[in-house]
Amino acid sequence: MVRLIDENGLRIDGRRPDQLRPIKMEAGVLEKSDGSAYIEVGGTRIYAAVFGPREVHPKHLELPDRAVLNCRYHMASFSVDERKPLGMTRREIELSKVLREALETVVFLEEFPRMMIDVFVEVVQADGGTRTAGITAASLALADAGIPMADMVAATAVGKVDGVIVLDINEAEDKYGQADMPVAMAPRLGSIVLLQLNGMMTTEEIEKGLDMAGNAIKHIQQLQIEALRRRYHIEAGGEEV
Amino acid sequence: MSYTAIGERGYAAKITRNRIYELLREGRRIDGREPLEYRRITVKTGVVEKADGSAIVSLGSTKILTGVKVEVGSPYPDRPNEGVFTVNAELLPLASKSFEAGPPDERAVELSRVVDRCLRESHAIDLESLAIVKGEKVYMIYIDCYVLDYDGNYFDTSVLSAVAALMSGSLPKYRVADGKVEKVEGERIPIPLKTIPVSVTIGLIKDMLLVDPIPIEENVVDTSIIAGYTSDSVVAALQKNTPGFMPVDLLKKALEIGKLKSQELRGKLLESLGHALEKQ
Amino acid sequence: MIYFKEAELVVPGQLLSDNGRRSGPGTYTMNGKVYAAQAGIAKAVEGVVRVIPVSGRYRPERGDKVLGIVSDIKPNVVEVDLGGDIKAVLRMSERESPPLKLTLGDVIQAEVKSAGLRGIFLDLEGLQKVKAGILVNVNPAKVPRLIGRKGSMIQMLKRETGCDFWVGRNGLVVVSGRSPASEFAAIAAINLIEREAHKQGLTERVTQLIKTLLEGG
């Protein structure tokens, strides 16, 4: 059995249980989309891009009272240890759906009847937490695209390894740990927009995990905001429009 | 900001079309370049550690990520002493509003095959040295190109990206012990390359030739040709990829231009690659 | 009470004011408070809080001057592509004929007559054809900056480069000058304005760029 927590209570990558991996974010990295973002969380690397609002294709999918939001979560073949076959796997299809539903919750779709907004999440390297890093990048790309939203969604995963509740689980902890619980929140609204659990946790452990995730998500949202500020060169006393 | 003509061929803005011709007659392009001038090349390698080789190559705003994955498998029965490689290219929908999610369309398949042709027909990868046990176990190299940002000329950019990923990559080392193939941990060997193939895309507008077209130029060219060259300036692959007449004399001229441009491009690739490898 | 600073980038979800009855575009209200819905610069004008977005697609409004490309011609209807995947129409009654002879691929300038769920309609009055130039696409959110306060930026561009400009609120812009060098300088300037729309000292940097480009040959 792999030991995931050492005698000092530290994790296999040396982190404390409540510590995030290093995170890097950048907005506006792809020129041909309406909004884009790049994120690194530990070894996880993801691009996200947004197109729209644009006319719906095919036409019969349009909705009379709001926009259609499409989301595709996809992994590059070389993003994982064993080369992933081309095309969409069942896992990618499921994650595309839960990501879309999380984003749909905050986007003001009713402002764009008969239009669609496309969100593309491309995992270039997977090192644990790709859906949560993916949704963080997607939300940053939506803000970069000027899409109206109630809040900027940010996400991380908590887990249980060797009986300890830990934040932002990495690939080894995901593989050999007892539980993995990805959480996405609209932090300013204090609400969860994506939640999954693989593995066993008591309700007390879930509560503790959600508190831990909630604090981390506020920090991650701060990083999103800083990335947007860098992107738009906003300085105090800037010129008026 | 981008140069635009919007729309499809049918209604591409006439003023853009006209201005492209007028400028070309004065030896200029609509984005300020000269007819035979490539956009800036940048190379970043080692961008995906889980791959056995990886690179992001940009040509202007066009950005293509290639990853190389290596496995061990059986050779093809008709080539028992050679390793195997395959090329796949995808036009990711995040790269352009003209790319759609879903299985590769004919453009993506054409791109995969043209990149494959440039690598295969130039004998770039030394397949014979990829046999681990002749007739039984060989290296299998998967080269996957993903277009991340599309601002024209995905052919040349993909070839550059694939070559950069191969040159910056390596193979895990295997040894044969007691008739079994086992990995030698911690040891890696370079991917054996015999030549550095480079492709040059040349567009024809009336009687004028230009290289490295951006999308609005791709929309108005009468036809275009992609030529792959080896390090010895031998042509190893050709693809005419836009409907329209290509006069024989202009094709000859295009191939001469391609020869010079391929040398220039290869030089720039090697220079950027050198810098990238230092950083990796 | 106002919770944002002047010229600060506000982001979706940020609390802007606790007077929920005074909220403008780019914001939303919840529990009597005003929050930002888009990334942008917040402003309180006569007590109404709004966000001027830093990016986003064009949303047509009546009276906007737009540029477009004639993309289809049907009996009594000319379809115009405004870029950003939206199309508008010029509609004529049975007896009317178009004030200009239009063909596929023509670039036109027109005013938005109405925009709503039934489509975007352009005004036949004031319709103009743009005869020559380089057509570029800028982020529609940056168009007000490109025009400048009371047209100051675009006037400066005209003066410094000697080019003519057609600026569509939808982000399509045509630059037409006497020499390629002047057009390229104008386009480089537009590029800089788009990239650094919210940075201080923009006008001076743009002037400097044009001077360098035109004098440096």
Topology at a glance:
The complex is a heterotrimer of chains A (241), B (280) and C (217).
Chain A: E1 23-27, E2 35-41, E3 44-55, E4 68-75, H1 90-106, E5 115-125, H2 130-144, E6 154-161, E7 164-167, H3 171-176, E8 179-186, E9 191-195, E10 198-199, H4 203-232
Parallel strand pairs in A: 4-5
Antiparallel strand pairs in A: 1-2, 2-3, 3-5, 6-7, 6-8, 8-9, 8-10
Chain B: E1 2-3, H1 14-25, E2 41-45, E3 53-59, E4 62-73, E5 84-91, H2 106-121, E6 131-133, E7 137-149, H3 154-168, E8 170-177, E9 180-190, E10 198-205, E11 208-211, H4 215-220, E12 223-229, E13 235-240, H5 248-279
Parallel strand pairs in B: 5-7
Antiparallel strand pairs in B: 2-3, 3-4, 4-7, 6-7, 8-9, 10-11, 10-12, 12-13
Chain C: E1 9-10, E2 15-17, E3 27-30, E4 33-36, E5 40-45, E6 48-53, E7 65-74, E8 77-81, E9 87-91, E10 107-116, E11 119-122, E12 128-130, E13 134-137, H1 143-147, H2 152-161, E14 164-167, E15 172-176, H3 180-195, H4 202-215
Parallel strand pairs in C: 9-11
Antiparallel strand pairs in C: 1-5, 2-4, 3-4, 5-6, 7-8, 7-10, 8-9, 10-11, 10-12, 13-15, 14-15
Helix pairs in contact in C: 2-4, 3-4
Cα gyration radius of chain A (Å): 18 Å
| Beginning-to-end CA distance, first to last residue of chain B | 32 Å
- Broad shape of chain A: globular
State the low-pLDDT regions of chain A, or none: 236-241
Mean pLDDT of chain B, to the nearest integer, reads 94
